[in-house]
Amino acid sequence: MKAIDWITQVLEMAVALAAAPAFLGWLNQCRAWLQNRRAPSLWLPYRNLRKLFHKEAVIAENASPLFRVAPYVVFGTMVLAAGIIPSMGTRLPLVVSADAIALVGLFAAARMFMTLAAMDVGTAFGTLGARREMMVGFLAEPALLMVIFVASLISSSTALPVITGHLASGHLGLSPSLAFSAVAFILVLLAENARIPVDNPATHLELTMIHEAMVLEYSARHLALMEWAAQLKLFNYVCIGFALFFPWGVAVGRFGPEQLLVAIPALAVKLAAAGFALALIETISAKMRVMRIPEFLGTAFLFAVLGLLVHVLLRA
Amino acid sequence: MTHLPLGQQLLDTCAALLLLLSFAMLSQRRVVTLVNLYAVQGAVLAAATLLLAWRTGEEHLYVSAALTLVLKVAFLPWLLHRLIRRLGVYWDTEPLLKVSGTMLVGLVIVVFAFSLAQPITRLASTDTRSAIGIAVSVVLLAFLMMITRRKAMSQVVGFLSMENGVFFGAMSASYGMPMVVELGVALDVLVAVLVLGVFFFQIRERFDSLDLHHLETLKERD
Amino acid sequence: MELALLLGFPVLGAALLGLTGAHRRAPEINAALSLATFLASCALTVQVIRHGNLLLGDEQFFIDPFNVFLVALTAFVGLTTALFSRPYMRVELEHGRLTPGRLRLYHSMYQLFMFTMLLALTTNNMGLMWVAMEGATLSTVLLVTLYRTPESLEAGWKYFILCGVGIAQALFGTILLYVAAEKALGAQGVTALLWTHLDAVKTQLEPTVLALAFVFLLIGYGTKVGLVPLHSWLPDAHAEGPTPISAVLSGLLLNVALYAVVRSKVLVEGSLHSRLPSVLLMGFGLVSVVLASLLLWRQRDIKRLFAYSSIEHMGIATFAFGMGGPIANFAALLHMTVHSLTKSSIFFTAGHASQKAGTQVMEHIRGLITLSPTVGWGLMLGSLAILGVPPFGVFTSEFLILTTAMREQPWATPILLAALAVAFAGIFSKVQPMVFGETNGRRLPHAPALLPVFAHLAIVLMLGLYIPPYLAHWYRAAAHLIGGG
C-alpha cells in the first residue's frame, strides 16, 4: 500500500462528506431553473445543517436508545459506503474488506436502522413511512444486485474498483446488457433516494411521503445527521452509477498524484451533469401513486434481469 | 470487454432490442401501441437483416430486408391500424394473468429458450449464432402473449411477432432461408392477415365485439 | 407434364371459379376440374409405376411410391367430394343457409385447397411443403366459417389460431433442419432443404439439432393431424363447417399432415441413433386413440362424433408409423387409405342425414332407414366399416397393426384393443338408433344420389378382401421407403 492510496481513500471520503450537500443544492437549483422558479442558493443545504446542529435536540419521551443511536449508525454507514465506491481512484485500501455486495448490505443496514427508529416512537407517520420504505427497499435491492451482477459478469469480479478498472480500460463498445442495466439502475436510484416518480422530497403530504415521514420525529443534530446521511446516500448512488457506467476520468491502475488531480475535476463535471439529468427527470415526470411503485420497480428488475440474460445469451 | 467488430456489436444490439420489444409487447395493453411496437420490431428486424447482408455480402438478404420493410414495417401495421379504426378496438381487457406475473413467466421462458437454443448455437457456423437464443425467446414470448390475451387483435399481433422471431432465428442460424421459401412464407403471412381482416369483420358483424370470450361456447358438453 | 397438369388444374379452377362468380354451372365446373385433376394424378401414377421415382422441375418436385399413392387418393376423394357437394350445396343454397357469393368463395377455395394439398404432397422442398401446409389452413379457414353462425366463427378462429401457432413451430423445425443440412451438405441455398438431398446425407446430420427439429415439426404438423392434446380445433372445425369440407378435412388434410410428419421422421431417424421419433409417435398416437375413444361417448353432434373418430384413427396410423418396420408401415398406409375413403363417405351420408333432419344433434335424427334407405344403409355400412368390422379394409389394416404391436410392443396391444372396443360401443350405440330408431317422418319422395358413398365403400370392401398386386407392390415400396422399426 502506497501513501497515495491512503491519500485517495481519505480524499474520497472527505469529498463525499463535503460535496454531498452541494450536490443536492445543485440538483435543487437545476430543478428550479427548469421549472422557471428562482433558484435557491447552492449553499442552502450547508446552512440548514449548520442551523440544525446549533439547535437543542428534543426527543420523544417514550423513545428508546435505538432512536438516539440510529442517526449515528445511518450516517456512519453512509460514510463507510462512500469509502468503498471508487469515485476518484480504484486503489482503495478499504476495498479489500468489502465488495459491491457488501455495499448493498451496508445500504440495507442503514435502511433497517432507519425504519426501526421510525417505528420506535410509535407515531402513525413513522410507521407508515417505514412500511413504505421497506416495500421500496425489498423491491429495489434485487434490482440493484442484478445490475451489479451484470457488471460483475462482464469484468468477472464483484469488487467495485476492479469492475470500474475493467470497464474504464476496456474498449468502448455498444453493450446492450450494460445499457439495460443502466436504465434499471436509474430507476433504482430514483426509488431509493425518494426522488420524484416515487416520492416527492419537497412535500409533507401524508399520501405521498416516504422518507420525510420517517424522519418526522427527529430534530436538531439528529435530524441534521439524518439529512446529511440522505444527501450522502444520493451522492453514493450517483457515484456507483459513475463507477459502473461512466468510469472515465477515474484514476486506474498504478496512478500518481497527477491522475488524481485529473480525477477531481472529472468527478465535478460528471456530478454537475448527473445533477442536471436528475433534475430533468424529476421535472418531466409526475409523482405516481404508491400502488404503482411495485410496477415501477418491477420494470427496473425486469431491465436488470434482461441485461443479465442478454449478456449470458449473447456471450455464451 | 471482448473485442468485437462494430457490425457484430450492432447486431447484438438489434437482438437485445428485439428481446426488449417482446417484453414491451407483453406488458402493453393498448392495442394501437401494440401494433406500433410490432412495426418497430419489424424495423429492427429489417435493420438487422440489412446489417447482416452488408457484412456477409449475401444478396438475397437485401431482398429479404426490403421485403421485411415493406411488409412488416409498412403494410401490415397500416392494415392493422385501419382495422383497429374501423372496428374500434383500442384496449385489451384485463389480461388473464397480471402484467407482473406475465413478466416473471417471461423471464423464466427466456432462460428455458436459452437452454433450448444451446445445441443449435453449437452447431451453427454463422457468427451471429449467439442471437439464436434470443430468437427462440422471441418466439416463445409471443406464444405467451397469445395465451394471456383475450382480444383477437392482440392474439394476431402475437402470432405475427412469433413469425418475426422465427424469421430472426433463420437469419441468425443460417443467414436466412432459400429465397423461394422466404417468398412463400411472406406470401402466407400476407394472406393470413388478409384472411384475418375478413374474419374480424365476420366476428364483429355477429357479436358487435372482438372480445374472444364470446367464442367460448364450443366446449365438451356433458 | 402430368405434374404440371395435376397442379395446374386446381389453380386454373380457383381462378376460374373465383372470377366467373356465382355461375349457375359452377358446381359442374368444380366437378369437371376435379375430374381433370384426378385423371392427371392417374397419369402421374402410371408414370411412376413405369419409370420409378421422378425428380422434376429443377429437383423441386419429387414423386415416389409413398406420395404418389397419396396424390391419387387425394385427387380421387377430391373428385367424389366435388360430385357430392354439387347437389348438397344446392340444397343448402335453397335452404337459405348460403348466398351465391359465399358459394363462389366455397368453390374457389375448394380448388385452392386441393392445390395446396397436392403441392404439399409432391414438393421435394421441405420449405415449400411448409408453405403449402399453411396455405391449406388459410384456404379452409374461410370455408369453416362459411355459414357465419357464432359457432362456426368460433370454430374458424380456433382453427386459425391453433393451426397458425402450430405451423409456426413447424417453420422453426424446418429452419433447424436447414441449419443442420447446411452444415452437412456444405451448400448454400436451395438444395439444403430438398428432401432427396437431405435423405442422402441424413446419417451425417447433427443428432441433437435434428431431435429438436423433429419435436418442433411434430408439434407443428401434429396439430394438423389432430394428435391429442393438440386436437381441440378439429371437432369444432368439422362440426361447424359445411359437410364437404368436413369430408376433405378429415379424409385428406389429416393424411397430408401425417405425410409431412412421416417425411420428417424418415430424415430424423436416419440421423438419430435413438428411438426418440418412434417413441414420440407411438406415445402421441396411443394417447390420441385412448382419449378420442373416450370422448366419443360424450358427443351429441353427429359430425363431432365422427371427427373424434378421425382423431382416433389418425392416432392408430401414427402409432403404426411409430412402430415402423415394413408390416406396420404397410398397415399404416393402408389404414390411411381406407380411413380416408370411409370417413369421407360417412361424412357424405351424415351430411345428408342432418340436412334431411334439419339438425346435427343425434337425438333428433331417427329412423333413417325408413326415411331414406340409401342414406340409412350408407351410414350403417360406413360406420361398420370404420369400426373395423370384417370384411372391410379397416379391419385388415387394424388387424395388421394389432398383430405387429403384439410382436413389437406387447404392452400397447391391450390398450389399443380396449380403446377400439370402447370406440366400437360408443359409435355403434349412437348410430344404431339413428338408422333403425322409431320415426314419424315420412319417406322421402326420391333417393339422394349417394354414388360417391357406395363407390368409396366398395373400394374399402375390396381392399378388405383383395389387394390388387400392383397396389400391394406399391404399398410395399412405400413402406420400405419409410423404413424404421
Describe the fold and architecture.
The complex is a heterotrimer of chains A (316), B (222) and C (485). Chain A has 316 residues and is mainly alpha-helical. Chain A has one domain (3-315). Helix content of chain A is 71%, strand content 0%. The model of chain A has no long low-confidence stretch (mean pLDDT 81). Chain B is built from 7 helices and no strands. Chain B has one domain (6-211). In chain B, helix 1 (6-27) runs parallel beside helix 5. The mean pLDDT of chain B is 80. Chain C is built from 19 helices and 2 strands. Chain C has a domain at 284-485. Chain C is 78% helix and 1% strand. Chains in contact: A-B, B-C.
Beta-strand portion of chain B reads: under 5%
Report on the biggest sheet of chain A.
none
Helix run count of chain A: 11
Largest interface: B-C, 49 and 50 residues
Average pLDDT value of chain A? 81
Output the radius of gyration of chain A: 19 Å
Shape of chain B: globular
Structure classification of chain B: mainly alpha
Mean pLDDT of chain B: 80
Low-confidence stretches of chain A: none
Order of helices and strands of chain B: HHHHHHH
- Judged by helices, strands and strand pairing, the structural class of chain A is mainly alpha
- DSSP helix fraction of chain B: over 70%
**What sort of overall outline of chain A do the alpha carbons produce when their principal axes are compared?**
globular
Q: Kindly, what is the distance between the CA atoms of the first and last residues of chain B, rounded to a whole number of angstroms?
A: 63 Å
Summarize the structure.
The complex is a heterotrimer of chains A (316), B (222) and C (485). Chain A is mainly α and 316 residues long. In chain A, 71% of the residues lie in helices and 0% in strands.
